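Support reply, case 0932

Customer input (verbatim):
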Amino acid sequence: MTSQSEGSRTLPYGEWPSPIGAADVAESGVSLGFVDAIGDEVWWAETRPAENGRATVVRRTADGSVQDVLPAPWQARTRVHEYGGKAWLPLPGVGEDDASLVFANWDDQRLYVLEPGSSGPRALTPEPAEPAGLRYADLVLSDDGREVLCVREAHVEERITRRIVAVPLDGSASEDATWVREVAGGSDFLGHPRIAPDGTRIAWLAWDHPRMPWDGTELRVAELEGGVATNVRTVLGGAGEAVLQPEWADSRTLYAGSDRSGWWNLYRLPLGEVGDATATDDEAGPGAAPEPEPLCPREEEFGFPMWLLGYVSYALLPDGGIAVIHGVGTYSLGILDPSSGRLVDVDLPFTVWTPSLACAAGRLAAVAGSATEPLTVVQIDLEGPEVRRLRPAMDPVPDAAVLPQPRSEALPGAHGRVVHAHVFEPRNPAAAGPDGELPPYVVFVHGGPTSQSLPVLDLDVAFFTSRGIGVVSVDYGGASGYGRAYRESLNGQWGVVDVEDCVAAANALVDRGEADGARLAIRGGSAGGWTTLAALTTTDFFAAGVSYFGVSELLKFAEDTHDFESRYLDSLIGPLPEARALYVERAPLSHVDDVSCPVLLLQGSEDRVVPPSQSLMFRDALARKGILHAYLEFEGEQHGFRKSSSNIRAYEAELSFYGQVFGFDPPGVPRLELSQG
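Our regenerated output:
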């Protein structure tokens, strides 16, 4: 509910005059990615809508100047797993100004190095036989500084393989592929290679279909002989234990995250000297694994689901301490003493942290934000602490008076479940809704589904709340951030539990007199689009639905989607062919006849994760039934829209759509044409 403030006008919800336009949302928001650090320099990735979504690398030098490292048209972006990951690595030089950049280039997916004073990047890897057929991610520098180790994903005809490889920095492999050395393999997926400080061992993560990395991964350790992994053994993890981010404390001790307790906590693994245990094959030998020692056992998460290669949720400090991101739903930065288990939070104004940390010169670099501050690249001097804000995701930030003030709640759900959600009430000092009228609300459904919503300052939300439309962002069962049991509550229940939880969250607001039960919408992207379509076809609770590149059918999706998620449905629905009937029954496309409200579908033309066929099939089914709908396809866009022009059109279309369904006329927005045929 909103209250009348002095000087405000009474206007219908949805028609409030807002200073936040679609162009502001699309163009002011830069996506900030991974961070790294060399000495007092901080490096980070930026994806810029104003440059058609180009992904570049930026650094702040020791004197405080900020400069682009990678010039246009080059962009550091990898297609490994299609979602990508960390695609670049700064290399230290004699001085900080001499640092070089190794990166995977989007257009051809080859690795390049850009050296100071050079005329441009030079190639490090060979031209693949198939366009973009060799892809690289998760880069680390070898112990001798002569090579970069990384995950290489090879697409040869219909076969996809992944290996940890070593690429020489002298360029010898740019024309001769034999100079790229395979270090380790043996699994469908690999990640997070780390070499021991003395160069004698390597650790990495491995997992196989049908597992996703949050279902079960294995931490493998091997001796390095001639630069190749030998005597491989699994020291932590398995089918029911998800391990994250191995880091060497020293040449005989590993740290890693594991959810063996039901929560991602940190563990220490004493490995002893090389040769203390042996293995006989490349899968996992008989050598006894060390007993993992919990560092700070808590019912909190100290890690994030590994959607992208290169995620870092803790960093080792020079004094032996560990900087950790931890929490439940929202997060803090703490300093953990691994010898005592004592954890002390750093007094900082941030509640949202992305899985990216780096430490150099005794300072931390990170990307953090809060409900009142957008995601920002920050440098933290732990003495004090002192925070330098280096790059906000948006600048300038709109007046705080027009921004929502989220509250995080645990709401009552179906069958006695608890539903986690963030509520954003309509807020604008220039307007108030009519007396006796409740605002419309939109349920925001995050993708994944193994992911979570974040209560961070985000113009995606403020675009609606500043116009008098409330938002409730739901961390439905299956979301990360609340322990393994909550994540696994969606297993076999995709399209059921997520729908029930979204309905329950919105219904709680209706029951409390905060939302108009006749004007509720649901919207989401990718897996959130699936939940949107499932909610529209299995309930009559919502009056409108908006699907951004959502899944509508499962059998064809299982055939067409990319390799990384090609067996995700085994846990979310069930394995094929045994669960074939359930795939058909659960799919929204099978129940279009039960849709009774208008639907807006938005889709990228080059989406390889959820191909356009998913939205097109649903559109055609809506047209056959005569349901009011619109379908917008965005040329050149992949899974998620990166161009300003695409996002402007999408935001305006969505707002116009709600206006037509809920009976308000949003000012300054082109009218979206809806069709029944």
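We compared this against your earlier run and they match. Two observations from our side: The two ends are 38 Å apart (CA to CA). The domain at 398-662 is CATH 3.40.50.1820 (Rossmann fold). Please reopen the case if you see a mismatch on your end.
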